[in-house]
Amino acid sequence: MTIAPFPPDHSDVAAITAWLMSIESTSGDESTLMAAFGSALKARGWRVTFIPVSGARADILATAGDGPYVTLSTHLDTVPPYLPPRRDATSIFGRGACDAKGIAAPMLCAAERLRADGVPVALLFVIGEETTHDGAHAANAWLERTGFASRALVNGEPTESTLALGTKGAMRVRVRTTGEAAHSAYPHLGHSATRDLVHLLADLDALVLPTDDLLGETTINIGQLSGGVADNVVAPSAEARLMARIVTDGDDVWAQLEAWADGRATVERGIEVPPVRLGTLPGFATSVVAFATDIPAMPAWGTPYLFGPGSIHVAHRDDEFVAVEELERAVDSYVSIVRLLTGGK
After folding, report:
1. Which of 18, 36, 60, 321 has the highest count of CB atoms within 10 angstroms of its CB?
2. What's the CA gap between 182 and 198, in Å, rounded?
């Protein structure tokens, strides 16, 4: 693909956002963007390190000054499908507008201002957040090997320009039922796995799941369903993929799911992210968010904070967008956060 030149004005947050969005980086296919962005940062005089993740895939670390650093970090992978950027008078639309290329851009603009003022700062852009968090895990392992000095991690997700007090965790679960195939005109000669699965899933609402005073309720989403072979065959197998948003230790929810499925299905516990409490700073509005982040996979990067422009309510949607005015305010916010965390330098 032909890649446009990186915007020459390092303070033009909207242009940088649109440039990042112009290069597709669906999870697992981020290499083109990361190579182009890394080269652009090098050309701007940043010290750039590519942190290997898998194959040709890599995170980007860019630093200025001497540590220990406050690290501004977000992810550059996106969910499918790719939606190219477009603008109207007030907003930028397209994939990654708020989740999270529209966060990477103000982080970079803020870091440019801090660098010009002689404030040490690090930028960490990771991949794989939307799937397995493998970029975050790779970054954490790299820091532990190298001893890189990061005192705080300011993670970026769309929090409507508030500092999040905490985030729910996430647990992926597969539920499988097994039946016996037969001609659908004679259902008594078989056993329907899809019927069993539907009845089982209907009972999810009866579970009394854990709650937390700060994070709220545990919720479970039935994300994907599959099963059967044809409409005239009694289904021999069926499967559901669930996502639980957890507010306590995952074992609490898992024990309930095992009891719920006992004798009726098999359940498989998948990728899990724990809930977290986060740092706050004076002068910033706060919130609590229900989505999971890379923060639990990066404990070695220092005290965690979570802040970003845009709303999670439009992330992953076909009408994903972020207001340019909010991007511009976020630049000032990230500068303030870093200055507060470096003692007001």
Report:
1. 60
2. 19
Name the residue ranges covered by the structural domains of the chain: 13-165+277-341, 169-273
- In terms of DSSP H, where are the helices of 183-323? 193-202, 250-261
Neighbours of 208 (CB within 10 A): 7
3-state secondary structure of 201: helix
Helix (H, G, I), strand (E, B) or coil at 72: strand
Q: What is the CATH number of domain 13-165+277-341?
A: 3.40.630.10
CA–CA separation, 67 vs 101, rounded Å?
25
**What CATH number labels 169-273?**
3.30.70.360
Q: Fold identical between 13-165+277-341 and 169-273?
A: no
Q: Tell me: the pLDDT tens digits for 264-273?
A: 999 999 989 9
Kindly list the catalytic residues.
Answer: 129
Nearest to 125 by CA among 26, 32, 38, 15: 38
